[in-house]
Design goal:
The protein is α/β, with parallel strands linked by helices and 184 residues long. It contains 6 helices and 12 strands. The longest helix is centred in the N-terminal third of the chain and has 15 residues.
Length: 184
């Protein structure tokens, strides 16, 4: 799946990502959110820069992950001015420069946007294999709305899962919104 996603021209992925974004920002949970946690895309992932811009211009707070590769842990930091505050971090993933880190607990987020390599309609995902997001979701003391962002071609019928896997509430693709609570 990763090879397929990586084979797509960036112009096509940009267009598909705009379709994901337009569906995403229409979701009431996102419209009503005060704090949104989002990944910052890298490579062929669904682009999130338009979502960040929309949220900030709408008066919402954005928090983004900062990777501690030593303990496979994500912490979260408020992002206010992306063009000024970001640099390439672990594996080239954008994250706030140290002087712009404003720690925020993930539990404070109303919505958490989650990346994935492959998704099934039940809301389970396969990521890059290090388990960063799985650990974060499993450690949550609150229940924010969890939304997976995907290109339609990333959906598969069923993915294997372990007892540590948690499904997202909704998957937003370039073609549709899937409410996983109703998925078989």
């Amino acid at each position: 799946m990763l090879a397929l996603r990586n084979s797509k021209p960036f112009a096509e992925l940009d267009s598909l990502s705009r379709d994901v974004e337009s569906r995403l920002i229409a979701i009431p949970a996102l419209q009503n959110a005060k704090i949104i946690s989002t990944y910052l895309h890298v490579g062929s992932e669904v682009r999130t820069s338009g979502i960040v811009d929309w949220a900030l211009s709408s008066g919402k707070r954005i928090i983004v992950p900062v990777t501690n590769s030593g303990n496979l842990h994500l912490s979260f930091s408020e992002l206010r001015i992306p063009a000024k505050e970001l640099e390439r971090g672990f594996r080239g993933i954008p994250e706030p420069k140290p002087e712009f880190r404003r720690p925020v607990r993930l539990e404070e987020a109303d919505v958490v946007l989650i990346p994935g390599v492959a998704w099934d309609k039940r809301g389970y995902r396969i990521g890059y294999g290090a388990g960063y997001y799985d650990r974060c979701i499993n450690a949550l003391q609150s229940q924010p709305t969890k939304i997976g962002l995907a290109y339609e071609f990333q959906l598969v019928p069923v993915l294997p899962r372990t007892r540590f896997d948690r499904r997202v509430d909704t998957i937003v693709t370039d073609r549709r919104i899937i409410e996983t609570i109703h998925a078989p």
